[in-house]
Amino acid sequence: LTIMGDASMEPNISPPDNTSQQDSLFSMTDVFLISLITGLFTYWFFFRKKKEKVPDLPKMQSVAAPVRDSSFIEKMKKTGRNIVVFYGSQTGTAEEFANRLSKDAHRYGLRGMAADPEEYDLSDLSRLSEIDKSLAVFCMATYGEGDPTDNAQDFYDWLQEADADLSGLRYAVFGLGNKTYEHFNAMGKYVDKRLEELGAQRIFELGLGDDDGNLEEDFITWREQFWPAVCEHFGVEATGEESSIRQYELVVHTDVNVNKVYSGEMGRLKSYENQKPPFDAKNPFLAQVTENRKLNEGGERHLMHLELDISNSKIRYESGDHVAVYPANDSSLVNQIGEILGADLDTIMSLNNLDEESNKKHPFPCPTSYRTALTYYLDITNPPRTNVLYELAQYATDAGEQERLRKMASSAAEGKALYLSWVVEARRNILAILQDMPSLRPPIDHLCELLPRLQARYYSIASSSKVHPNAIHICAVTVEYETKTGRLNKGVATNWLKNKVPDENRSNSLVPMYVRKSQFRLPFKPSTPVIMIGPGTGIAPFIGFIQERAWLKQQGKEVGDTVLYYGCRREREDYLYREELARFHQEGVLTQLNVAFSRDQAEKVYVQHLLKKNKENIWKLVNEENAHIYVCGDARNMARDVQNTFYEIVAEFGNMSQPQAVDYVKKLMTKGRYSLDVWS
């Protein structure tokens, strides 16, 4: 209308001698403009209506469908379950415990299901009371420095933000942790506390498993008290003894297309032949080893530096991240298991879940051969847990051996002690048990059902992506030791990596891998000083840190003090990256290079002794220059001793009491100025 008004004003401004001509002209213009504007307005009006109305219905449907699919409540109702056991698992142990608890339920007239929280909508916990005699159990492992496992991250985030009313929920929590770590069982403790805050009813006390001690015994002890509490709460009784119930049925394939058979892939069939990003735990990248060299000059151990080519993978990493590799078991161990059980390892088979409603259709990718399963999918080198011994006992034809297996699987004190000495401390794996019990010859398919999955191994990346964007470096030491039975046990991954050599044909040089992000990060400002403490292979991430600081310096950035405290046994034996460190020190990138050689003199010298020696400089860097502290390596002794040394330094130079000094260091951790990348 404004435009129309503006146009109708124009004739009044024009000269009088052209009036009649212009009137006629402008009336035509007006008609044209009115038609155009009306048409545009009409089109816009209806088009806009369509845009608002049409998506409404499909949008509602697309949102509703996943919720229905991811509702564990609907699944429990449909399958008659009343106990759900969620697991937060990084290495498979929490998942294994969850499966054992869900299997236990039938002894009490109840039905359980194990569930991955990543696959379900956990806000449905508020609806669990709709099911009679319902209970949620949480087997939660703690990863790294008090973090949730990858598959429990969403659940953790939801718990932090949730304001749900869980007053109808009954629950119990068993945490899996390691006392050598600073934040022992942080995830289990948090879930237990947070569920109570949201109104849920705890029906049994929090269980705290310690992997530095005897995690299996901790679980059994908690479990044998947990079920009586469940019985009392619901007014039910055990229906009988624990029984062996197969979870999977064997299907042997005599005529199968070889292209349909898994040969070691973690997820998608033929994913190793046809690689597609993004690469992760279920879709690892096959990286070629371009370098594999021995780092140490002497001694019994084999310390090595490997370089993995990640060109064209689109994999990105930062200094401090971890690389996960999927190893393979030693073929000689696999062959011996096949021989002792009289099995044809090349038989193609599938193990299919008898519970058709289960999300987990197979214990590992199927169809496959027994050889592939025992090589790539199953853990055959760790001592088996008590539930495996219990299930295997039925196959021992010698009464004494059967009784021994059942005793070790029992909750009796004598049985626990026998399991600890004969299996755990003697480091007997499944092959050793079969060798030492001649009458024990289980069917190979049941053994494959019982053994846990072979897990990825994590290594701190020993390179900077600023300097090596297309390569990831690993620093590792091969694990090899003699057991109490005189057997030679070898670490699966390190010995497998040791044999990965650069190969033009690629056949023996490929490593399935992916990158796991870490919180172990250099300071945002390059000018911030860093104090790095990493003896042995704990030096790995610091090689990456130093490379990055050198690169930043080359870019003209102001780089703060870069201080390293490194330790090894002997200077001429296992001083890792000696030449590289000397060069960085000479170039001024490495401000201080402090090295402790523990066995080169009568009295052992460790990194913490060098920290005490330079305590005044340490305090100045931390207190006045806001230095960041990084510790990498052994959690059980080194990390603890280093932390205690910092308590002493802070107490002395900060004029603080011991509790105040501890609080000071804890605050550094909270602020991200004291970071740990440790293992036990």
TrEMBL record:
GO molecular function: flavin adenine dinucleotide binding; FMN binding; NADPH-hemoprotein reductase activity
Residue span of region Disordered: 1-20
GO CC term (a single one): cytosol
GO BP field: response to hormone
InterPro entries documented for this protein: CysJ-like_FAD-binding (IPR003097), FAD-bd_FR_type (IPR017927), Flavdoxin-like (IPR001094), Flavodoxin/NO_synth (IPR008254), Flavoprot_Pyr_Nucl_cyt_Rdtase (IPR001709), Flavoprotein-like_sf (IPR029039), FNR_nucleotide-bd (IPR039261), NADPH_Cyt_P450_Rdtase_alpha (IPR023173)
Keywords: Endoplasmic reticulum, FAD, Flavoprotein, FMN, Membrane, NADP, Oxidoreductase, Transmembrane, Transmembrane helix
EC number: 1.6.2.4
Enzyme kind, highest EC tier: oxidoreductase
Required cofactor names: FMN; FAD
Residue ranges annotated for the Flavodoxin-like domain, each copy included: 83-227
Domain FAD-binding FR-type: 282-523
One Pfam match: NAD_binding_1
Transmembrane segments: 25-46
PANTHER family documented for this protein: NADPH--CYTOCHROME P450 REDUCTASE, NITRIC OXIDE SYNTHASE-RELATED
Name this protein carries in UniProt: NADPH--hemoprotein reductase
Protein species of origin: Alca torda (Razorbill)
